[in-house]
């Protein structure tokens, strides 16, 4: 669970606009307060054209959580994510930021966050991020077995940590979400049958990043796109700061990890 002691410094400019917009979103905060569950999301980027495109999926209208919204593939961290082998490692600065304000920080835990984003992307879209490996791959039971069958090992060096956001208190579901990004070139295998009218995502769309925010999406998803644009403008530099969005005293704040 994140450390919520102390107030962050006040920022100005685009950062202030972002926290203002998140704060103004109307939300019912009358539910019992829950501890946020760790989750991870992946933004896939296609930079083959002048204006980069990002991949979003539309959630099924029958979902109780965010029905019909456009989102990035993602979901909760699972215990098996800690046990999956990888080809490359996260950048050390990313590991440090992933382990800021968390309980029992470790490099293994940081890797599990990124691995969860890769696994969820496969489960929801059929896209596997990683590198081909001709040798047998040992995997934990469950969805990771599909990677072994396809001969793909996740490559964490291709993943960038873009932002983190914690759902406000007293919401029906709360997540401590890590937003990652990777280039479409990191996709090593594609499987069919993961998207459709009876699946979690009913459609996938590639849209220019400048147009994607016009879709019906959660507020934090739009903010993550803006953070991604800032990072891309820096050349995806690991020196670029990674923000944490959370609510303090009934107002969102933006801290740099």
Q: What is the helix tally? A: 6
Major beta sheet summary = 9 strands, mixed
Order of helices and strands: HEEEEHHEEHEEEEEHHEE
Percent of residues in β-strands: 25-35%
Percent of residues in helical segments? 10-25%
Overall geometry: globular
Distance between the termini: 15 Å
Mean pLDDT: 90
Number of strands: 13
Low-confidence runs: 1-12
Oligomer: single chain
Q: Helix/strand-derived class? A: alpha+beta
Observed structural traits:
257 residues, alpha+beta, two-stranded antiparallel ribbon, 6 helices, disordered N terminus
Structure description:
With 257 residues, the protein is α+β, with helices and mostly antiparallel strands. The chain is 25% helix and 27% strand. It has 6 helices and 13 strands. α2 (92-98) packs across α3 (107-125). It starts with 13 loop residues before the first helix and ends with a strand.
Task: Please outline what is shown here.
This protein is of the alpha+beta class and 257 residues long. It is built from 6 helices and 13 strands.
Task: Give the helices and strands, then pairings.
Blueprint: H1 14-24, E1 37-46, E2 53-59, E3 70-71, E4 74-76, H2 92-98, H3 107-125, E5 127-129, E6 131-132, H4 144-150, E7 152-153, E8 160-166, E9 175-183, E10 187-190, E11 201-208, H5 209-212, H6 219-233, E12 243-248, E13 251-256
Parallel strand pairs: 1-9, 8-12
Antiparallel strand pairs: 1-2, 1-4, 2-3, 2-11, 5-10, 6-7, 8-9, 12-13
Helix pairs in contact: 2-3
